[in-house]
Amino acid sequence: MTVRADDAATATFAEHRRLLFSLVYNMLGSVADTEDALQDIWLAWVGRTRPGAPPITSPRAYLVRVAANNALARRQAASRRRETYVGPWLPEPLVTDTPEVRDSADAADAALRAESVSTAMLVLLESLTPLERAVFVLHEVFGYPHTEIAEILGRDSAAVRQTAHRARAHVHDRRPRYRADPGTQRAVTERFLAAQLGGDLTALLSLLAPDATLWSDGGGKVSAARHPIHGAQHIVRVITGAAMSGIANSHAIEFHWVGTDPTVILLEDGIPHSVVVLDIDPATARIHGVYAVRNPDKLRHLGVPS
User: In what order do the strands lie in the sheet with 271-281?
Assistant: First the structure.
């Protein structure tokens, strides 16, 4: 049987789609923007595989180059838009589990998250310049050497090395310190939600580290804190007050994986309205960071497995 050229192009793109999605998502932190980027990458790929076009010796290398540069351009545009974003900006949650792995202790090693980073790391990467983030993601997450990154981005190799060093130093100084095991993550999250639902201020204070920080992203569309909240006492006042009342009034709570994070999704009438991720110190089981995504635009894409 003769394989048509367009069928072969589709099969090749499908083979690399997960890699491309992960690469672009780690650079953008937006599922919607990532899907738009993949459409652009697909169109570029189709154009290069038409009869008469110059041959592509390495489809993977070509697709990664197009994806990285597309994401870099989108990252630069997004950085300008986020200057007017209302409140803290958090990445769009990307559910990466299935019913088979959702409650598995080994879920953190699932192939679907092979190239993912934590929510806390995605937030940290927001503080890099677009070029620093592109170089960091390509090198630290995907393992590309500096010389190859220079070719991918069309930059001088020495300049890429300097950018990588600067980005790595920035991330190292602020890198999330904690990585609790899935069992601890879930148990602490359940206690945290139960204490909030019950208005148990003492329990909440015992779960939060004194220097904890809360980021809540409502995008100006739902109630949420307009600035990061620092300190356990301040966080308790916020999450038990009107600004976060929607979480306490949820009708259903489901545990899933978002990237590499065991995560809770809160639903009302079956519709996700909040996604909460906790940074927990495994040594003390205390919470050092709370990330709550409530912007409905960032939750529409969630296909929550039943």
Answer: 229-230, 208-217, 286-293, 271-281, 261-268, 252-258
Helices (H), 29-181: 31-48, 59-81, 119-125, 130-136, 146-153, 157-174
The stretch 241-254 carries a mean pLDDT of 62
Higher pLDDT pick, 279 / 208:
208
- CA gap 167, 220 in Å, rounded: 30
> What residues does each domain of the chain span?
1-84, 119-175, 182-298
Average pLDDT of the chain, as a whole number = 85
Question: pLDDT (tens digit, 9 = 90+) per residue, 116-157?
Answer: 678 888 999 999 999 999 999 999 999 999 999 999 999 999
Task: Please give the distance of CA 81 from its chain centroid, rounded to a whole number.
Answer: 18
Is domain 119-175 classified as CATH 2.40.30.200?
no
Q: What are phi and psi of 152, to 5 degrees?
A: -60, -45
What is the fold, at CATH topology level, of the domain defined by 1-84? Rna Polymerase Sigma Factor; Chain: A (1.10.1740)
DSSP 95: B
- The model's pTM: 0.85
Give the per-residue pLDDT at 246.
Answer: 52
Contacts of 10 (CB under 8 A, 6+ apart): none
Measure the CA angle with vertex 256, ends 28 and 103; round to 5°.
140
- Cα–Cα distance between 49 and 51 in angstroms, integer? 7
pLDDT band for position 108 (50/70/90)? Answer: very low
Residue type, 79: S
| CATH architecture for segment(s) 182-298 | Roll (3.10)
- Tally Cβ neighbours within 10 Å of residue 69: 16
Task: Over range 173-188, report the average pLDDT.
Answer: 76
Residue 258 CB neighbour total at 10 angstroms? 26
Residues contacting 128, CB < 8 A, separation 6+ = 136, 167, 170, 171
